[in-house]
Amino acid sequence: MTPFEYALGLISILMSLALADVVMCVHRLMRRARTVRWDARPLIATALIVIEIIRIWFAQWTLRDLDTALGFPVYVALFGHILLLVMTAVASLPDEVGDRCDLGEFYERNRTYFWGAFAATQAAYFALWLVFGGNQASVGGSAGVMDWFRILGPLAVYLLLALVRWKWLHYLAPLVILGFYAWLYRGQTISM
Question: How much is the pTM?
Answer without folding.
Answer: 0.89
